[in-house]
Amino acid sequence: MTRFRTFFEALLVTALVSCAAHGVEPPRKQFLRDNWAIHSSCQVKASGEELSKPGFATAGWHHAQVPTTVVAALLADKTYPDPHYGMNLHQQPGMDYPIGKNFANLPMPDNSPYRCSWWFRTEFQLAAGFGGKNNSLHFDGINYRANIWLN
Predict the structure, then answer these.
(1) What is the pLDDT of residue 146?
(2) DSSP string of 86-144?
(3) Cross-strand partners of 120
(4) Cβ atoms of 38 and 73 closer than 8 Å
(5) What is the pTM of this model?
């Protein structure tokens, strides 16, 4: 891992030096890791178009920092107790499979909060210097699929 990281760190430094030598401003980033709200789409009765409007109320939603999974976010905001302690994992909603069975090989229970997709929502202002330019969003945390809504 160290060799991999060192190679890419050197590549990044080379790219930044090359940009400076040619009078080109290096790419800048605005991180959007904080201030996310998540909620099950089974419980939110709004469309993506409505959810993506500024000021959409997220009272009662769970707080999250990305990248994350739904389960990790629910653990981080203390919705569920530490699954590595006692029988906590088995007591979470949707985890009522028979002890000794591999739950990955069983049908998802009807009471599982993960039967539906989840909304991840945030609002942000572009940082100074980003307005009036072509910008891109880079999602490192999507590990399966996503529908992206921007207003």
Answers:
(1) 81
(2) TTTGGGSTT--PPTTS-GGGSPPPTT-TTSS-EEEE----PPTT-TTS------SS-SS
(3) 38
(4) yes
(5) 0.74
